[in-house]
Amino acid sequence: MGAVAYRVASPTERERALNYVKHLLAAFKTLMLERREGLHEFRLAVRARTSRPVVTPALVAIWVVVALGLLFGGAPMSDPDTLLGWGASLGTRTTQGEWWRLATAMFVHTGILQLVINLVVLVQIGLLLERLAGRSVIAAVYLSGGILAGIANLSSHPVAVTAAASGPIAALYGVTAALLLTQYGPELVTRKRRGAVRFGQFDVAEEEPAAEAGSKIPLLEVKAIAISGAVFLLYTMVTSPATLWGFAVGLGYGAMLAPLGGDRPPSPRRVGTSAAIMAAIAAMFALPLRNIADVKPEIARVLAAEEHTTKTYQAALDAFKKGHGTVDALARVAGGANVAELQEVDGRLAALEHVPPEYERLVRDARDYLRLRIEAWRLRADAVRRLNVSASRAVDEQPSGPRRIQAEARFRSNNVAMGRAETAERASMMVFERLRAPSPESQP
What we know:
Structural class: mainly alpha
Number of strands: 2
Helix content: over 70%
Strand content: under 5%
CATH class of the largest domain: Mainly Alpha
Number of domains: 3
Order of helices and strands: HHHHHHHHHEEHHHHHHH
CATH superfamily of the largest domain: Rhomboid-like
CATH architecture of the largest domain: Up-down Bundle
Radius of gyration: 37 Å
Distance between the termini: 57 Å
Largest sheet: 2 strands, antiparallel
């Protein structure tokens, strides 16, 4: 379209268009120089307010130390056991008394890319906010955002090892968004009312209202924050959407501490009150998540019980064959000791509370196996007793016609009883195989 317009335009129109473009570029250059000068003055002003940031460098140092420990450990950086060792969160441990993991998880990263993105953002936005709003504000926002993001991870992924390092960064963005709204919101409303921007043309004659040096973030700084924020947001939405809870925390702090970025930072009392409110909100969301059941040890106990009961019965059977045991002792092992052991394991499973949805099917399979296996042992004990009675009667009775018929009937009945026991055992073993090798649907 530009080429066609150039071809059909007259020389005078081409010259006029060229002059217009030159004038537009010159105006843009002048505007950028003025904004860069204002950005330089703004940075000098905020550095004068807080010459030596403390919180942001400390956070960076902790991140780097933890990341180096994960990188140079004996296992990969993303290994769940390694992450847990460095303070990551796991629902079945955090909610069982290790609540301190909500605080330590916000310093753990699961990959190098996440670490690099968060470091760049923290250095950019953390230093700015610490100088504008004060050290206590950025510390409170960081901790609250990380804890709320960790609680959101517990709610959405209770049996996964999670880190919450991106949650505090989202909270810092929330505070920045609140700060920019308080600084540019009234101005945008005023411009809209005055009709400064009209369809098809722009009125650039009206200058931006003057602001105190160091109190208003220049547009170039806003642009840099927006670019890094867009990258961070896209990465966060793909890897851990729960960290967006941190953004809500930041907006909440911005509302409670408004206006931020004034001549002096908020008082410690206001910051403490805001932090206490956020702590109460975190406790309200965390209490329903307490005592998430750790199902894995109970499933391991089920597997061990099957192995132990089978070995116990086999040992009693071998002793009986060698003449060192009785049929009654064999039946007591099958229908007594083995049944009691499996009933105890089933009672532990029935007592589990707050079972994560990812493990509900596995628990149901385990209880189905125990029900079938208990029934199988009882039927086997009954069949063993029947065989013992039949053998005793066969010795005492004489081989007459009617008694032979009764003996054959008892033999068939005994076979039916043993067949029922074996059928129940096969059914229980089919469920047991699912426990030993959980299907994708029953395995988180």
